[in-house]
Amino acid sequence: MTPTDPRPFAVVTDGGMDPLPSLHNDVPVAPFSVNFGEKSYPMTEITSQWLYQELRTNPVHPTSSQPSPQQWVDAFARAGEGDILAITVSSGLSGSRNAAEQARDLSGRRVTIHDSMTISGAQSFQVHAARVAAERGESLDTALAWMRQVRDETEFYFTIETLDYLRKGGRIGRVAAAMGGLLNLKPVITVDKSDGTYANVARVRSFKGSIEAMTQQVTKRYGEGTPLRVALMYGSHPEDADAALEQLRQRHPIVWTDRAGVNPVLSVHVGPRALEVTAAPGDWPWER
């Protein structure tokens, strides 16, 4: 913000968000990094297509690292002067929130930290709510209330072609426990709202079947015929998003939809072929 900026606060987030073109997701980002051995690449300097090629050809399996406190400080600086609302990926999946808290102390800025308790498109929904509040001149309390409402109403599911990447990245946890030894099955995974960690909700034998199982989870959650806002995040096969949206259209009026590719840091953990669905009912809270 500038001294003449009418917004009461600025919004920043981290690289756990997959930004959606038609939402207010254009905010300063504290980036995650992709690491191949001793080589580290900030996510802002690579593409998912580059990562997919590396996954095919590089004998070293990549890891990801959270933003450093200094990267959060830099994001605060890009937000300009004044109060800041920092929205982090789920603390159940990353230490980014801890880094943001350290950055707040280092910067001496007035920073409110909100744990989204989710990731990817569901995180982008909360960032959008915060930005709308800021653009309308609403208070920070109103922004937090809207984000909590969006968090409560929004469901996030993803499916992957293989569990290998989650397993190698150490993110498999409760998903592996639910899958048992049947690692050839395709899971449908959500983020548990109680603790912000991954949880398995279904398992099927084919990737096509997992897309159907995922959209059925959406319908089970909201009820057939409920109008939905739907965001789709795809990996190496954009046509997977088309298939999911068509299935949802058969059971729901779609009042808004958008899509984007899964960012390269998240692709480290889900692999090249993955599909994510973020869904919420009806209008945004401030439109009712």
Question: What would your notes on this structure say?
Answer:
It is a single chain. This protein folds into 2 domains: 10-152, Rossmann fold (3-Layer(aba) Sandwich); 153-287, Hypothetical Protein Tm841, Chain: A,domain 3 (2-Layer Sandwich), CATH 3.30.1180. It has helices at residues 48-57, 69-78, 96-107, 120-135, 140-153, 164-168, 173-179, 207-222, 239-249, 264-270; strands at residues 10-14, 29-30, 33-36, 39-42, 63-65, 84-88, 111-115, 155-160, 186-191, 198-204, 228-234, 254-261, 274-281. The strands form 3 sheets. Strands 10-9-8-13-11-12 form a 6-stranded mixed beta sheet, with helices on both faces. The chain has a 4-stranded parallel beta sheet with strand order 2-1-6-7, sandwiched between helices. The model is unreliable at 177-181 (pLDDT under 50). The radius of gyration is 18 Å and the shape is globular. Helix 4 (120-135) packs antiparallel against helix 5 (140-153). 47% of the residues are buried. With 288 residues, the protein is of the alpha/beta class. It contains 10 helices and 13 strands.
Quickly list its features.
288 residues; six-stranded mixed beta sheet; four-stranded parallel beta sheet; Hypothetical Protein Tm841, Chain: A,domain 3; alpha/beta; 10 helices; single chain; 13 strands; Rossmann fold
